[in-house]
Amino acid sequence: MHLIIPTDYNPKLSVKETEAAIRYIRETFQDEFGAAMNLSRMSAPMFVEQSTGLNDNLNGVETPVHFSMKDMPDQDIEVVHSLAKWKRAALKRYGFGMHEGLYTNMNAIRKDEDLDNIHSIYVDQWDWEKVIAKDERNLDTLKATVRQIFKVLKHMEHEVWYKYPQAVYHLPDAIHFVTTQELEDRWPDKTPKEREDAITKELGCVFLMQIGGPLKSGKRHDGRAPDYDDWQLNGDILFWYEPLQHALEISSMGIRVDEDALRRQLKAAHAEDRLRFPFHQQLLAGELPYTIGGGIGQSRVCMLLLGKAHVGEVQASVWPQEMLDQCAAANIQIL
Fold it and tell me: Counting CB atoms within 10 angstroms of each CB, which of 30, 113, 151, 329 has the fewest?
């Protein structure tokens, strides 16, 4: 457990006012985001059958919460980590056309998460996915989509400022693009997280690209499952966050693997056994659309726009008593 306590923290909104602001931000953002990206809101599962291969494997070491059910006693059911692969299959199943997409209100449990000001075992995000053409699997498409998302976030800042001027956290005016290799070249002696802090403090907001594969040093900047993002065409949206004095990740996203990238990345991750799953077989057979997609943290967006010191101020979860006591003493109002 790691906790940052800002000096003389003032939450500015009461718990009741914060709850109203959370509802306003979530409802407004998803409507504006869906319209800007041509996405339809869809229902999504909270759990999937392990045998489908649809669950997000994250870094490959996290264990999903799982259970069996009375009417399917032989099936292992897993609570989702995210819907990274489910969405792509859903676009095919529901008949979405070119440049159409979906978003969902995704709720997940990541029980192995290391808790701090921005990490919880409860994950709530807008998971989204959009059909693109094969020849659009490039950096231009990726960057244009990132700029669309940033534009919606900036507009939300103005919306929140109009409704809660005393509480809004102001965002930078532009997003910058940088690769993980560029960061390693510039700061070879820093850790990946220290590099993220340094570049976001310098530029305000960055889209950090190419996450998952090894860098020139042989080390990875961060882990990424090998069977959804193309590691050459993905990234994270990061803001420098003054209240905590470090980078705050709002979104992880990317252009999804094609057949070649799937084989290449599964081999690199020593995870070729996943090719037995129905999802992977469909992808290799060319039965799934080419897509771009990602997740945008709902609580993270609320935390950012309201200048909160702890994600527990904008979501209800479970926290160690020691953390609750320290937050209470620092005027951090955990829900």
Answer: 329
Structural domains in the chain, CATH included, are: 15-329 (3.30.930.10)
Provide the residue type at 165 as one letter.
Answer: P
Residue 273 annotated to the active site: no
In whole angstroms, what is the distance from residue 12 CA to residue 163 CA? Answer: 13
Structure tokens at 174: 């532009």
Q: Is-catalytic flag, 125?
A: yes
Active-site option among 26, 30, 56, 137: 56
3-state SS assignment for residue 240: strand
Residue 109 pLDDT greater than 90, yes or no:
no
Which residue in 26, 110, 137, 300 is the catalytic one?
110
Whole-prediction pTM: 0.91
Selected catalytic residue, list 236, 251, 299, 315? 236
pLDDT at 60: 63
Q: Which of 82, 120, 125, 265 is catalytic?
A: 125
